[in-house]
Amino acid sequence: MASLSGKVQTVLGLVEPSQLGCTMTHEHLTMDYTCCYVPPSSGQETLSDEPIEMKNLFWIKQNPYSHKENLLLYQETDAVKEELLQYKAAGGGTIVENTTMGISRDVKTLKKLSQETGVHVIAGAGFYVHHTHSSETQAMSVEQLTDIIMHEILSGADGTNIKCGVVGEIGCSWPLTESENKVLQATAHAQSQLGCPIIIHPGRNSNAPFQILRILQEAGADISKTVISHLDRTIFDEKKLLEFAKLGCYLEYDLFGTEILNYHFNPDRDMPSDNERIARVRMLIDEGYEDRIVIAHDIHTKNRLMKYGGHGYSHILKNIVPKMLLRGISQNRIDKILIDNPKQWLTFK
Ligand SMILES: [Zn+2]
């Protein structure tokens, strides 16, 4: 694809990779996460419908998926705009907004937010996890799915001419379903034709990222252009993580800002803290993977916004970077993680 080659595709059009600056590689600015509502534990049922107020903020922070209004990020465009302006003032340049079909992608709103804030926004093509696939999607062939993904990159998404610049986040469950397997193959086919970046949401099992890379690779994808998201909650064992790192994809730690007692989607595991994430990033750098690390917050609920007492889109720039410096990660390496690696990944081959 000569016209895309060497460029990055934002919701406002093609830009030179050098224009991106600091980039969060996995965020959401508008989406609906109602698909993943978790009923509250017994005795707490009434809390799920309460308005968001100071007195229930701690409960919402600990039970983000059990509060119905908290899942409606799409209602907060004004607050998101204000926080993007703060992100820009803090040195931010670009946001990868990888909301896909199934969680209410809205490229028109993304375009407006980018125009009004000056932050580059890159939209995501493709499909979220199986239980958000429509019956039509589930019935499609790999070829039909590939056509949809390619159309979203070459012509526009959601019935507009606003184009996606990345495939994903492609949703995968554990175990992987047949429909998700087809979407992964379609992702690989689109990628091998367009040379575009890919980003994957793996199932919650340490074997999931290995299986996903295998499927992508067998279908012809370029693993070096692929981000595996959410490693914070997926591969806990250090030896296994280093085994995975050898495969050559980008390793994403994207739940910065999430510190929680119980992880409702996987109660058997403890969600790491920000300090533990920094230690993991440091370990991967020490093992020689500084060219493969990317980071983000994956904001997808209201409580993560500053408007509701959350950390907002500037948390990494304002709080995590100083802590990384304090823990011996050099500015040079931080620049690699925030600027150079995202730039390499997002540039079409
Ligand atoms: Zn996400």
TrEMBL record:
InterPro entries linked to this entry: Metal_Hydrolase, Phosphotriesterase
One BP term from GO: regulation of appetite
UniProt-listed Pfam families: PTE
TM stretches of this protein: none
PROSITE patterns: PHOSPHOTRIESTERASE_2
Sample GO molecular function, one term: N-acetyltaurine hydrolase activity
Cofactor(s) in the UniProt record: a divalent metal cation
Entry's Gene Ontology cellular component terms: cytosol
Binding residues for a divalent metal cation 2: E169, H201, H230
Cofactor note: Binds 2 divalent metal cations per subunit.
Superkingdom, natural source: Eukaryota
Keyword presence, Disulfide bond: no
Assigned keywords, A-Z: Hydrolase, Metal-binding
Catalytic activity: N-acetyltaurine + H2O = taurine + acetate; N-acetyl-L-isoleucine + H2O = L-isoleucine + acetate; N-acetyl-L-leucine + H2O = L-leucine + acetate; N-acetyl-L-methionine + H2O = L-methionine + acetate
Record: residues binding a divalent metal cation 1: H26, H28, E169, D298
Keyword Metal-binding: yes
Family: Belongs to the metallo-dependent hydrolases superfamily. Phosphotriesterase family.
Listed name of the protein: N-acetyltaurine hydrolase
